[in-house]
User: What shape does this take?
Amino acid sequence: METIQVRNRLTHVRSKLQKGKLTLGFIGGSITGDSRVMANWPEPVARWFVETFPHARITVENAAIGATGSDLAVFRAQRDLINHQCDLIFIEFAVNDYNTPTEQRMRAREGLIRKLLADGRSELVFIYTYSQRMYEDMSQGKVPPSIAEFEELAEHYDISTVWVGQHAWQEVKRGRMTWDEWLPDGLHPKHRGSLSYGQCVIAYLEKELLTALDEASDVIDKPLPTPLNRHHWGQADTLSFDEVQLEGPWMTRRAAPQMPWVDQILSTSAIGAKLSFSFTGKGVALAFDFGKKSAEFTYQLDGGPAITTCRDRPDWCEDGGWFRIYWIADDLEEGLHQIELEVVHGNREDCAGTNFHVALIGILK
Assistant: This one.
């Protein structure tokens, strides 16, 4: 498989650049959105746009969040990308979706694509980074399954793709970069590795935008094709906290500074506090400001058996700040459903608190 696969000529982007205004959107995991270092691959890409098109006002919306996948992104797309009227959106989830079952990640990915393409404004590019779980496949010249499945969607929706992980791999093989300069922990590139990723994306952009900028670039709006998966999550939505019934000491508050992707959280720290809500749809998920000080919870769906959560807390997990999704159900019969939930400690040695901070209630329709 080629490192760069061109399927879409970015006619909307060229038109926007000619008019002097372009908004870039990025969504993915920590490889794309680690704002603490400001040296991830979107930085050289954004700077290339500023340098190459000095007449244009370039706006950047980096909505990537570490340790999140496309299943959470499908609920965030409206707030974090669509509402900002992004013209060119780079999607990087081949790594963070890796352990998600194929059917679930394909439903989420196609739902995200259809949401972003629905109004005809945005053009998309898929970016494939690298994690050590891809080593065996790539060392044998194979395409890792998470990437191969993205390619199915790319072909169907005419979306160009850039396999930056393969580009960096080849740089290491040629001796241009050492492995530890690229990925000292097997996942997160440092400055040199992020630059390698960015240079690969820039090579694609130079080919598409600089060589074609003076060509006729009539913008032709194409209707969305028939879905590959009729169970895609393109109708995913969120439930307002105002529709939740509460019992016990709850409050709605502004999210903590380490959660800039969330406006408000529904919060308690009281064991035994309860909430309930009804929804119409075929699936429901809760997303949390999660960490080592987070409580667990017991829930019942439609009066069924009580289920108590038992979520892992990896060593890298801090006291809070992980925007973490928990799926209650994703394949229900369409209709009205009821959730009842109670906060519990979890009786776990690695549970250092009882913070219960709901950041989002996601509904599949």
User: Anything to note?
Assistant: The chain has two domains: 4-210, 237-364.
